Amino acid sequence: MTKTTLNLIAAACENMGIGANGTLPWKLKKEMAYFTTMTTKVMDEKKINAVIMGRRTWDGIPDSYRPLHKRVNIVLTHHVDNVKAKVPDGVVVVPGLDEAISYIEGREDIESTWVIGGSLIYKAAMEHKNCGKIYLTEIQKSFDCDTFFPNIDKQQFHLVDEEEIPGERQLEGDISYFFRVYKKL
């Protein structure tokens, strides 16, 4: 059985904000396309990726995009039975990160695992022994947010270059951003 590596993916503005009122505080089509590509791309066409999220992140995904297509959607919540009753068939609902990892490791068809929020789930994943990399889009602007990405401990995570990740500044409208990858040591 292979160990499941947790990759975190998020976009955060200058104050590390990642959300406001249950939604993204910005509209960045290219950045959203990057998220979709990263979380769906597989080397083996017979496999699929998993996305792990908290219940509020699930609730924040517009209905037309839920569940996230071509990915195994796993929702973490303390209220498993309540949430299970409300999500479509095929969406996995478990009480915690370890249960999500056990579920993934019990399947043969999952290639990569992506943690997609929110704050508490990101924090738990960053502290988890299976944490691999953080794919963080660093937005060069401040937004009013009520949800934040956890502090990245630079003693534990180092900035790395990934071949397939563009290193140059991205620009959409009046918002510029960088795709960064931090690898856990």
Give your account of this protein's structure.
The protein is an alpha/beta fold and 185 residues long. It is 22% helix and 32% strand. The chain is built from 5 helices and 11 strands, in the order ββαβαβαβαβαβββββ. The strands form 2 sheets. Strands 1, 3, 4, 5, 6, 7, 9, 10 and 11 form a 9-stranded mixed sheet that branches. The chain has a two-stranded antiparallel sheet with strand order 2-8. β10 and β11 form a beta hairpin. The model has no long low-confidence stretch (mean pLDDT 96).
Helix percent reads 10-25%
Mean pLDDT metric: 96
Distance separating the two termini: 23 Å
The number of helices is 5
Q: Given the helix and strand composition, which structural class is it?
A: alpha/beta
Strand proportion, as a percent range, falls in 25-35%
Described by the principal axes of the CA atoms, the overall outline is globular
Number of strands: 11
If you compute it from the alpha carbons, what radius of gyration comes out, rounded to the nearest whole angstrom?
Answer: 16 Å
Major sheet details: 9 strands, mixed
Uncertain spans: none
What letter string, H or E per element, gives the SSE order?
Answer: EEHEHEHEHEHEEEEE
Question: What's this entry about, in short?
Answer:
The protein is α/β, with parallel strands linked by helices and 185 residues long. Helix content is 22%, strand content 32%.
